[in-house]
Design goal:
There is one protein chain. With 369 residues, the protein is α+β, with helices and mostly antiparallel strands. It has two domains: 164 residues, no CATH class; 166 residues, Heat Shock Protein 90 (2-Layer Sandwich). A five-stranded mixed sheet has the order 2-4-5-7-6, covered by helices on one side. The chain is rod-shaped. GO terms for molecular function: kinase activity. It comes from Marivirga lumbricoides. This is Histidine kinase.
Length: 369
């Protein structure tokens, strides 16, 4: 057993097997294997039927060049040229080709194989060019054409589906990259506004704000382009943003972040939660004084994340949904589109928009780290 294993390793290395597989993928190899298999099957089938394998072999040697001419004429000329727009022309040319090649096959069989006309017919003394004989031969050729056409169309359909899926995947990746690139300037614009307010007031908190902003920028720039980041990193990013808002308003009660469940070894798309939190700070009321803090909840159950953000609203402001239809809603709009691309329909987002509060509830699946 060990000797066999060593022989296999010596003669069939990984590179050799890889090269063999690559070679077998070539169309000419596929075609050759198909025709060899079909030839053997036909020879054995008719040899068993007539109990004369020598006759079956000679007959198939004559027939197979006819098969090849008709099949490849159909696959690589008639189908591309006439289907699907000129079905009538396709059927006309195919019919003519069948008649011509059937007559050639009949003549070659008579002179090269046997002078016994239509040996498989139960009726004897057939005419060499009798209508029934010609139709029988043509139907036999049509069977081969139909079989190969079905195989070709199936392969083409599978290939087109694969290309369509690959194109869709690339389009999704391109759109996701575009959406992520929009998140970054949008996020920085909001944060720099906060810093601008502090510098106008010549606040002593400006240096700390710059430090927090640096942490935020580091996460957005270096982690924002990744497909997945750890949930703990994303939560730290959220906490930094809350800290920045706390510095801005000088009130530690502007927001309450509640975390429950096991957040370790979990991964999440970067910056998928932040727009909802930004939105709450941008449009919420009452949190500045700390009377109605923004409530942010993250709960992990198994591989499922339940995320919610609640902020109070002023009755004098326009409804938040109306506000989001303008440019200020770009973060939310992009996030919704990212969720659709990343999770398809495998996520849940509920919005409760009343005159007093605005609440979003998001449910998504997390990846194991």
């Amino acid at each position: 057993m060990q000797a066999f294993s060593l022989f296999f390793e010596d003669h069939f290395s990984k590179d050799s097997l890889k090269n063999l597989i690559t070679y077998l993928k070539k169309p000419i190899v596929y075609h050759t294997l198909f025709w060899v298999g079909y030839f053997l099957f036909n020879t054995l089938r008719w040899g068993n039927y007539f109990n004369d394998y020598a006759y079956s072999l000679r007959s198939n040697l004559v027939e197979f060049p006819i098969h090849l001419v008709l099949v490849y004429f159909n696959l690589y000329y008639l189908l591309p040229k006439f289907i699907p727009n000129k079905l009538g022309s396709y059927l006309t040319f195919l019919g003519l080709a069948l008649i011509v090649m059937s007559l050639i096959r009949i003549v070659l069989t008579y002179y090269l194989v046997t002078t016994e006309i239509w040996r498989e017919s139960v009726v004897k003394d057939q005419s060499l060019f009798g209508l029934n004989y010609i139709l029988a031969v043509a139907i036999g050729e049509l069977y081969v054409i139909g079989l190969t056409t079905a195989i070709k169309l199936t392969i083409d359909w599978v290939g087109s589906q694969r290309r369509a899926r690959e194109l869709e995947r690339r389009n999704h990746e391109t759109e996701l990259s575009f959406l992520r690139s929009q998140v970054q300037p949008h996020f920085f614009f909001n944060t720099l506004n906060n810093l601008y307010s502090l510098t106008l007031d010549k606040s002593e908190k400006a240096p700390e704000t710059v430090l927090k902003l640096s942490e935020l920028m580091s996460h957005v720039i270096y982690k924002g382009k990744d497909k997945k980041v750890s949930l703990t990193e994303e939560i730290a990013h959220i906490q930094t943003y809350i800290d920045l808002e706390t510095i801005r308003y000088g009130n530690p009660q502007v927001a309450i972040l509640e975390i429950s469940g096991d957040i370790s070894n979990k991964q999440i798309p970067p910056l998928i939660l932040m727009p909802f939190i930004e939105n709450a700070f941008k449009h919420g009321t009452g949190y500045i004084s700390g009377e109605k803090p923004i409530r942010i909840q993250l709960k992990v159950e198994g591989n499922t994340l339940y995320f919610s953000v609640i902020n109070s609203k002023s009755t004098t402001k326009k409804p938040l949904l109306q506000q989001q239809k303008g440019s200020s809603g770009i973060g939310i709009q992009n996030t919704l589109r990212r969720l659709e691309l990343l999770y398809d329909k495998d996520f849940s987002l509920e919005i409760d928009d009343t005159s007093e509060r605005y609440m979003i509830s998001l449910k998504i699946l997390l990846n194991e780290a």
